[in-house]
Specification:
Layout (H helix, E strand, L loop, with lengths): L1 E4 L14 H9 L3 E5 L10 H6 L3 E3 L2 H7 L2 E3 L6 H4 L7 E4 L7 H10 L2 E4 L13 H18 L21 E5 L3 H12 L3 E6 L2 H10 L4 E5 L2 H8 L4 E4 L25 E4 L20 E4 L2 E4 L9 H22 L1 H7 L1 H4 L2 E4 L2 E2 L2 H6 L8 H4 L1
Parallel strand pairs: 1-2, 1-4, 2-3, 4-5, 5-6, 7-8, 7-10, 8-9, 10-11, 11-13
Antiparallel strand pairs: 6-14, 12-13, 14-15
Amino acid sequence: MKIGVPKEIKPQEARVGLTPAGAQALIRAGHQVNIQHGAGLLSGFSDQEFENVGCTFSKTIKEVYEAAEMIIKVKEPITAEYDLIQPNQLLFTYFHFASSETLTQAMIKTNAVCLAYETVEENRRLPLLIPMSEVAGRMATQEGAKYLEKPQGGLGILLGGVTGVKPANVLIIGGGISGTEAARIAAGMGANVTILDTNLNRLRELESIMPANVTPIYSTSLTIEQEVKRSHLIIGTVLIPGSRAPKLIRKEMLEKMLPGTVLVDVAIDQGGCFETSEPTTHDDPILIKEGIIHYAVTNMPGAVPFTSTTALTNATLNFALQLANKGWKIACSENKALAKGLNIANGKVVYKEVAEAFNLEYIDPITLLN
């Protein structure tokens, strides 16, 4: 199969869809990998490294799309890429369709096959979301600690405190991968951490694996309302696969928070779990509303591209090999986890939550695989 890896052109995105090691594995399996010149530079991978494993190169993003049967990317296509996508071309990347009707309609019109990393599901887990969730969760605490500093507009509190001074109170909403990693880093920095979730089994797991300065609590609306009043850093990580994130902190709660409190919305790619969140970028990462700092960068892992690209390729490579070896129809027929990644195919919405988000007709993907 002819595989194309374009340079990411979304603002402040430094990752690339494949590492040289990933490209080598695909080439050794008999496939061609064509990469855009300079696509890996910001992730720390030179053109020479890709050439050494047998990649071919294109100068422009248009040439990459024109030559490829499958495109492997990191982020969803942006407007400048819409017209480059060809009918029946397979796009394997993050899409987060439920947060953008414009993107959804654009991909329907291309008649391409859109297989989303974030909805591939295996044993009730999201294996292609996990590595970026780990990165984003760890970064959430790191960024939150920075914006708690007074020069950044925060409360002026050191996350871990010092001898004789109380540490900061950190509230984490959601006990999944991102929430767990955020809690782990916050606890390691010495903060007083509360983590909320509605899954009692998960709370028991957290109770057994977390240090003494992390308190898992069952999440209710009332609990959230009470906890935000005393929290200095609040991290939202709640995710519903393929759907918009629920709004767990409402606008009216801001007035109950301490001025200078920092909100980090890890779920912003799916619309955000704070009502007052707005997507931001690494160039301009925060918004201040009613004295509360909002950090809602849509591609947080893009700030650490070497780590993120390597972790992402480690997770996606096996699935990419299946798609390249068998073609998307056979691969998805044989692998139910991969089939759940199908969101849009040949002009049809084949992921129920995306169809429901925009009142579009839903087509069972099974009808396309037979």
